[in-house]
Amino acid sequence: MNFRFIFSLALFFFLNLLSNHSRTVEAAPNYLWHDCPNTTLFAPNSTYQSNLNTLLYNLSYAAANNADGFADATAGKDAPGHVYGLFLCRGDISTASCSECVASGIKDVVKRCPGRGVSKIWYDECMLKYSDQSIFSVLEIVPGEAMPDAGNVADPNRFVQLLGETMNYAAERASGSESGKKFAVVEANFTSSQKLYTLAQCTPDLTGSDCNTCLRAAIASLPQGEGGGWSFTPSCGVRFELYPFYNASAVAAVVLPAPQLPSPPPAPLNRPKGKSNKSTTIIVAVAVPVGIAVILLFVACCSPWSITTKTYEVVEAEGGGSEITTAESLQFHLATIQAATNNFSHQNKLGQGGFGEVFRGQLLNGQEIAVKRLSEGSGQGVGEFKNEVVLLAKLQHRNLVRLLGFCLEGEEKILVYEFVPNKSLDYFLFDPDKRRQLDWSRRYKIISGIARGMLYLHEDSRLRIIHRDLKPSNILLDSEMNPKISDFGMARIFGVDQTRAKTNKIVGTFGYLSPEYAMRGQISVKSDVYSFGVLILEIITGKKNSCSFQSDGGENLTGYAWKHWRAGTPLEVLDPSIGDSCSMDEVIRCLHIGLLGVQEDPADRPTMASIVLMLSSHSVKLPQPRRPAFFLQKSMERQLKELKSGESTGGSMPWSINEMSVTEVSPR
Ligand SMILES: *[C@@H]1O[C@H](CO)[C@@H](O)[C@H](O)[C@H]1NC(C)=O
Ligand SMILES: *[C@@H]1O[C@H](CO)[C@@H](O)[C@H](O)[C@H]1NC(C)=O
Ligand SMILES: *[C@@H]1O[C@H](CO)[C@@H](O)[C@H](O)[C@H]1NC(C)=O
Ligand SMILES: *[C@@H]1O[C@H](CO)[C@@H](O)[C@H](O)[C@H]1NC(C)=O
Ligand SMILES: *[C@@H]1O[C@H](CO)[C@@H](O)[C@H](O)[C@H]1NC(C)=O
After folding, report:
1. Which of 666, 634, 636 lies closest to 516, judged by CA?
2. Which of 261, 357, 414, 563 would bridge 407 by S-S if both were Cys, CB 3.0 to 4.6 A apart?
3. Residues 397-406: tens digit of each pLDDT
């Protein structure tokens, strides 16, 4: 207690002393922004608070006493209440100004963020942050903020191009800097009377490559159409102006080297054609995110797309609207994805699918996205990959997860999807508590929605897509629990031939594979109908087809449902957590449709069109289901196991099992 008190007192006096002393020397720092989410809170008399006081005292001491303009500190090591912090001063300012800025920052952040465990505050002259997690050498791109400074420019197109080129060079110099500071200022002639001044800086604890990633992200979100402005993140910042805003005698400014800019401006802002390789990459860095923001705006508010622009190829869609269809318009820059996902950070990881890891992300315009980072091994060439993405992006239905675009850079193959907030169906369905949230009317809505989405894939879209891996974890739920089918078209992306009825490449998950597909590689829309049938049975019973039944007597879900259906006790299979608030007619009808879907002979199974009709009109009479493929399922399972155990020795397996998912593996 004494300790705490003394530190607080010392901090108080120290700060007062500092600011009273320096107010006479320096102007107050120029506040830009702060961020302190209310998700991490601490109590006023907690250990965290006293550790924070110690930390802030140490930081202010360091700012006044070292000339580096950067320091980190921690307090309360190896104990709860451990706090980490650091500050960074702009590379050109004096130790006195740095100390002044840090001291004001500390006073200010304590006022603006009382009780917040994770806080950041930015000034023109310095940045200060603290957290309950280690932040040293950690690249943080989110949250980012950009703000314009006053000032218009004549000839904005040429200005944007010069700005891109100059900022890019500044980023290169700052991230490649050998000296302690990751800091650079670069100047360029704009007109005979106007000069562009730019600055780029990272916290020096970052690696060169992290610094570069951070600066590219910051540059990508610089304010457009302005003569000056800032863009910064917790790890770096950039600024540009048409006047000298840094102390030129304290730093060695570099002048943008040749090649000179082409002088009439070659193209409008969103589609410039660079002359050299270098300027092309810069323009991509600046213009692609702008282009994407524009596209996302279209996607967000004007569906079906109705805006046409000269720069995009416009194709009539079947629905009558028009669409943006070029691969370029769907391409995301890797830096944008890295910025959105905090460089694929572990905290942003949503899961691991058969095709790679999935991350949650947020674009700088606030739009949330899901990013699927494809694992290597797709045999698809770049051109085919782009074509498939363009085709799949055209599939738009309220029960499909929308594909927003892709990224192809170096080794990375990435698909960008809309973010669907409520996780997937299996998360609710197979959890004893969460499944209670799925009352019958919700389950019925989910079944109908999936059926409509599948019908669209099978028949209504131009592409005739066979999903091949329909299962609860591929059904995402939006905020109103509407189902959205994900992972469709992956076979196309991976270059599996869609048109061949027989395939050597099995894509799917055990428990949902139709027998003819699993055993003989025969693929058709009816394989999806089988998976959909299993899905309906799972939704009604709340039980998983694959595992839960193995232990108790070797019976699987289709067999269990069939037995009760034959015995005239269909309602016994109903998930008890549904309660009695449901329409028995609907339950029985859905069970009936489910059993029709899992019939052994594909020809007996209804099409998705019939299923949608059966679900929407209760007057349609349903045929009696035949015995499902449950006996086959058992022998199939045995064969799968044998194949799996022989995998290491046998060389010519037609396909292999990858834990839960049976993914594409081609024979040699
Ligand atoms: C945290 O902030 C959000 C958004 O500003 C607000 O909706 C929420 O009520 C806040 N929560 C608390 C505990 O203050
Ligand atoms: C912190 O303050 C609250 C009320 O202000 C009090 O109930 C609590 O005991 C205090 N805790 C400590 C560790 O002093
Ligand atoms: C913080 O300041 C205290 C008191 O001056 C000192 O004992 C401690 O070593 C400092 N810690 C760090 C990490 O600078
Ligand atoms: C920039 O303009 C100044 C004055 O007009 C001139 O002296 C200088 O050579 C120019 N620099 C470059 C790189 O063109
Ligand atoms: C600019 O930097 C020089 C050299 O470090 C210094 O002497 C001068 O006081 C600085 N000017 C301002 C306005 O800070």
Report:
1. 636
2. 414
3. 899 999 999 9
